[in-house]
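Researcher: Quick test of sequence recovery. Tokens follow.
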């Protein structure tokens, strides 16, 4: 059971709460707010000494577990992540579960932060982990109210601060996350796959290696089409897919070679754009691991892990392409494929981590096409 603390009265001025037990059950905090670009603010507290002013797109995640994987998912770059589950940190941090080399979010918002987690493989507490990487956090906050606000008004920019912030001052520059130079894995693998890294989660790579594939991981703007390969996987990543002009142009060249192309999350949108479709921004996106999707042809339903704010516009799908998966909550496209060529992609994460493994079979389908 989580700690029970009386929420301090927020007056707008700084309020210091004493550290009464050497940070065992309590820690020194200041009153703070999550300021949104529409002028709304939500009260909470932050650890003493935390820096102000970090800006991010405020989004919410509905997963009950998996905060370690979510915080290190590169798709959350430039975002302040609101966890809807009321208690976060109760099983501490296991660094073996990370999806990239660092925490990727701009900030974290939690209803209640557990200071004492319990896990046999625990290496540090969530609080210490966040502070070690200078990630701002806000806790003792009404995350239900924030979520309801974002669901009705859409995601928007925000900042965690102990001082008032002018909503009009919130600005954010887009970021592309990728490697600098190609990396080779399992060179003696059965088939060679190009993994286009737009911010790829580690478990996408691990899922390919589990099939004994030779993987060449390349930067988002690397032209691999002149090389020898058996297939291409377009990875997940942060931001607006239309910002990835080089990736889209290279993917279009790859389609002309008629070799298998598989897209995941952002890769789904990039494949759609390369085929000639258009994308649009969802009101508040899909972030969590409880999203139901249906394979249109088989009527088979799976529960999926998702983290995205954009989708393909169905009306713009060109001739020869069809909807493969559909989200059963809002009917948005969750996957596309070509009628006759080995081109297909999904908006959800078949590699999961965190989340259900219902769709892991898609990696095997990709393998069979190589």
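Model:
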């Amino acid at each position: 059971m989580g700690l029970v603390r009386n929420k301090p009265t927020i007056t707008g001025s700084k309020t210091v709460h004493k550290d009464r037990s050497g940070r065992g059950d309590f820690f020194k905090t200041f009153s703070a707010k999550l300021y949104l670009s529409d002028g709304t603010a939500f009260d909470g507290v932050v650890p003493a000494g935390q820096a102000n002013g970090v800006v991010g797109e405020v989004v919410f995640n509905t997963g009950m577990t998996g905060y370690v994987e979510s915080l290190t998912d590169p798709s959350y770059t430039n975002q302040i992540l609101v966890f809807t589950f009321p208690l976060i940190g109760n099983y501490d941090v296991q660094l073996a579960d990370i999806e990239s080399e660092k925490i990727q979010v701009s900030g974290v918002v939690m209803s209640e932060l557990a200071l004492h987690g319990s896990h046999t493989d625990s290496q540090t507490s969530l609080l210490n982990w966040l502070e070690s990487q200078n990630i701002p956090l806000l806790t003792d906050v009404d995350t239900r109210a924030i979520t309801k606000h974002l669901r009705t008004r859409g995601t928007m920019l925000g900042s965690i601060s102990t001082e008032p912030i002018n909503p009009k001052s919130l600005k954010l520059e887009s970021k592309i996350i990728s490697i600098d130079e190609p990396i080779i894995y399992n060179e003696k693998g059965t088939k060679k796959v190009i993994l286009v890294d737009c911010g790829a989660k580690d478990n996408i790579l691990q899922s390919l290696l589990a099939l004994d594939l030779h993987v060449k991981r390349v930067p988002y703007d690397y032209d691999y089409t002149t090389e020898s390969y058996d297939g291409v996987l377009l990875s997940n990543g942060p931001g607006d897919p239309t910002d990835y002009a080089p990736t889209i142009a290279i993917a279009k060249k790859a389609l002309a070679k008629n070799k298998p192309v598989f897209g995941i999350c952002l890769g789904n949108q990039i494949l759609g754009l390369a085929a000639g479709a258009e994308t649009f921004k969802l009101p508040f996106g899909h972030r969590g691991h409880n999203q139901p999707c249906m394979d249109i042809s088989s009527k088979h339903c799976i529960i999926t892990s998702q983290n995205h704010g954009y989708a393909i516009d169905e009306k713009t799908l060109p001739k020869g392409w069809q909807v493969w998966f559909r989200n059963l909550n809002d009917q948005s496209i969750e996957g596309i494929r070509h009628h006759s060529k080995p081109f297909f992609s999904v908006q959800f994460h078949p590699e999961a981590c965190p989340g259900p493994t219902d769709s892991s079979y898609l990696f095997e389908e990709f393998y069979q096409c190589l």
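The chain has two domains: 16-169, 183-369.
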